[in-house]
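The passage that follows is intended for readers who have already worked through the single-chain material. We present the inputs for a multi-component assembly, then the predicted structure in tokenized form, and finally a short commentary. You are encouraged to pause after the input and sketch how you expect the pieces to fit together before reading on.
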Amino acid sequence: MKTLTAFEYIKPALIDEALYYLNKYGDSASILAGGTDLLVRMKHRQINPAYLIDIKGLAELSTISYNPENGLVIGALAKIHELEINQDVQAKYGALAMAAEQFATAQVRNMATIVGNICRSSPAADMAPPLLALDAKLEVFGLGYKKLLPLKDFFTGPGTNQLKNNEILTRVMVPPPGPCSASAFIKLGRTAEDLAKVSVAVYIEMDSSLIKEIRIALGAVAPTPIRAYDAEAALKGRTPSETLIKDASHMAAEATSPVDDLRSTAAYRREVGRVLVERMINKAIAEVSKNGRQKA
Amino acid sequence: MKQVIKVTVNGEYYEKEVVVHKSLLDFLRDDLNLTGTKKGCDNGDCGSCTVLLNGKPINSCMMLAVEADGCEILTIEGIAGGKELHPIQKAFVESGAIQCGYCTPGMVMAAKALLDENPDPSETEIREAIVGHLCRCTGYDQIVRAIKKAASYLNKK
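Having made your guess, compare it with the prediction:
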């Protein structure tokens, strides 16, 4: 039987109160939000926190909000399902909406949080590629301070990141998308419930026929979710052509360092990663020109 | 460590002391004797523990009972009207959507959540709604047909 072992349960009402307990208990405490990952790992004895700090009482962290100036702000308690049905997300952050829609099962989407998925820092985290492509920043609170971390530097290895054991990741901030921009996401998996074999997200911003900005992110093909910087540099400032996009997709595949596991071989992941990068670049470009035509 | 929680389950209000490391699933089954909700994988993979929390389907094995404090829960025991089966239950029986029955309570709750929001779902929407449920007997087709039939029953009402 997979029962949970005993722990102390603490449900603070204020961020400072939560920080107080995190400072007091350090590594023996875990933060509980959605619980879909934490409780399962506790049942399997992969982690055994003596204290669970349930942050669901921190009501100010429960919302997803958007304004054209600051962009999208996702609170630590916002569920994947809330992202999936958010109209601003659907209209302006295509890659994020697609990733939310394909995330696990209906039940899990009703429980799991976006921030939890980032904090878990799985190489295959579904929220990571779209948020990397959209250049998200993370708001982190510690006792007496607040800082912003770029997501692109956050992941340090499989399941590890820059967050300290006495800090809380409170919000994800996604900048407003550029005027002629679009983003796209795709995930390949064995089944809907399973982790991704490969996932790709692309954000692109055009200035007439030139690629003004492009960000390419891949999941499940390296120890952490990654950006394909060389491929981005090859495309930035250029007019997209079939050859250019194919070459850049090869460069993106070269940025990966996948593993063989029960889901896929490394060779498959690298090759499919290349194909999916190519497809997502083309899809995002098509989306930009479609939106342009609609506005004209 | 124990804590008192206040929950409404199937319309009935409970104020109960519960061990904090007990899952909502174990609380429903062991403390409230509502054993209709099944424990399958206890891992969030099989969907047999699905209940509606404030109207939305969740895996009760992946939630602590204390986390449900203040919430409204609907389990399989709460959907029929007295001795009359709920139209979804009736459609499951009529469509051969039940063999061993272990996945059925979860499937019925998922179907209820779907039909509450979308009274006339397409086959794809039905299949997407039950993606988090494993059935080892029926091959799913009968379950999909049952949910379609249930939709037609509910729309006739």
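Commentary: Chain A is about 35% helix and 25% strand. Residues 266-295 of chain A form the longest helix (30 residues). How closely did your sketch match?
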